[in-house]
What we know:
By secondary structure, the protein is an alpha+beta fold.
Amino acid sequence: MSGTETASASLFTPEFFQDPHSVQAALRAEAPAREVVTPHGHRVWVVSRYAEAKAVLADPTVRKNRASSGAATAPDGAPDLSRHMLSMDPPDHTRLRRLVTRAFTIRRIELMRPRIEEITADLLGRLSPGDKVDLLDVFAFPLPITVISELLGVEQEDRAEFRRYSNALISDSGPEEAQATVSWMAAYFTEMVAAKRADPGEDLLSALIETSEDSDRLSEQELVSMAFLLLVAGHETTVNLIGNGVLALLTAPEQLERLKADLSLLHAAVEELLRFRSPVNMSTFRFTTEPVVLGEVTVPAGSTVLVGLGAANRDDDHCEQAERLDVTRPPSGHLAFGHGIHHCLGAPLARLEGEIAFRSLLTTYPDMRLAMPASDLRWRASVPIHGLVE
Ligand code: HEM
């Protein structure tokens, strides 16, 4: 890949989704920020270098909420369940995040450990050596959806339907389907909030209702949006930490062997896998309220900015030989969980699930291998999410 036009013209094409990293390398080499037009005709400034990505995410003049920033353009298919913290700026963000943090504590997550281990063992125990399986289907998807559903209190029988709808949300499926999805989810969570209010349980949603009743009330819409955010953020990402991570290891056999020989590397390896094949790759969106200077480029006020977290994580100015997977690499402050006030609230849970998932897989099925050439695998055509179709 070489040249400006080639790199930006390749963005969001089928070839890009199949192999985003070479296009992102070209974008990084070219400029600190570059204005492109999305397939939906929106103008966005793409930021692909580490230092600039971090600077944008830490800049208080760069906002999450388009309405408060006065920008004219919108990211694709902005959903309506939007009264949640990830779409807010201070002071609303501060208030919502504080309330959730109070209920979604490190202690609550640590208490999940035995249950996550149990779910993992159960899923892997259903397979046998020699089976040819779609690992996403039998493991990478059911683990996080079960964990987040149990945490929130979503019933078992509703989970398959959730997968279908949340897939639709991130697959760029068009405004009608997106709207149908949002309506379904809004109705589902509204009913669930009412049920938990009447009959609270041990789950996170009940805790959120209780927290909000103690002090600063969360409105009905805020509770419903929060549940929606946690469910979608809690599994569309972790599924791809597992899927992308397993693929990365299987296609770098010396790294896989290194890790299997010394599982004390696991903690660092999970961070490296998050860096190397970031599940949230060509995201996140922000809106400028003032001109933002990024190296020799000034992004004007009122612009939409797309921070390429996965691209930034492969910047050689951030870590040496960044295009190489190295499970012994000391964690270097990757941006896979974002940065600044919106840094992933679920990161401790995602890390815990990742560690348990990789440890169990590598010890239960140490000889697992790909059933087809890696080049035959298809990647999802999703702007925010980098993950395999199957
Ligand atoms: C925010 C990635 C797992 C809940 C974020 C952001 C990223 C991210 C990049 C920041 C987005 C932005 O700035 O626009 C990931 C990845 C995960 C993961 C890669 C798994 C490997 C989870 C889990 C949960 C969760 C398991 C919840 C159970 C959230 C929430 C926010 C968030 C609530 C919004 C925080 C805020 O706005 O203050 N995540 N996430 N995430 N994530 Fe995660």
